[in-house]
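S.,

Sequence below, as promised.
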Amino acid sequence: MTRTSTRRGRPPGRPPLQADGPDQRERLIGIALALFARNGYAETTLAAIAREAGMTPAAVHYYFRTREQLFETIFDERIVPMRARVDAIFQEHADDPVAAFTRLAERFVDVAVEQPWIGPVLFTELLSGNDLFKQHMRERTDPTRFSALLAAIRRWQEEGRLNPDLDPALLMTTLPSLTFLPMAALRKWADDPARRHIDAGVIARHAVALLSQGLQPPRA
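The prediction came back faster than expected:
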C-alpha cells in the first residue's frame, strides 16, 4: 500500500519567513526605514526594498501593496505610539514646562536608542527638497496639535515660566537637534578621540543641562 505523506505544505500565496530571522514583515519595515534614512522616502520604492531584502517585488507586495500602505503601517505602529508618550509628558507636567521639556529631551534619547532610524529619517526628510514624506505626515496629523503646543509655550512665557526670548517654533526644532542628531552620529564618532566618550547618557545629560539654563526665565 502506498504511504500517504502527512507533511503539511505552506499555505499558497504567502512568502516564507526569512530562515532563522525575524518576521518578514518587520524585516521589510526595518529595511524600508534604513532606505528612507539613506536615500529619502521619495527615492525609496517597493522595488528598491525588494532588492535590499533579496526578495521579488511580488513577495514584498504580499505584505505592502503600495509604498503609501507601508507608510501608513510605519505611522500607525511606530510614530503614533511615540507621539502618545510625548503627549503624556506634557499632561504629567502641565504646570511645570521646564520639567516637561527636560523630560522630553530625555525621552527623545530613549526613543533614539529604541528606534535608531528616527534621527536619520527625521533629518534626511527635514533637509530634503521633496515634500512627499512631510505631506503624508501632515495628512495624518491633527493640524491643531502643533498650534496648541505653540500656544501653550507662549502662555507659559507670559506667565513667567519660560524664557520669553525663546521662539516657540524653534524650540520644537532645537529639541530633536540636541538629541536625535547626536544619537545618529554616535557610530561615526566611535573613532573620534574628542567625541568617542559620548554615549546616550552623555547626550541626555548635556541636553538637560542646556535646556535647564536656557529655559529658565531671567532672574529679576
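The radius of gyration is 22 Å.

Coffee later?
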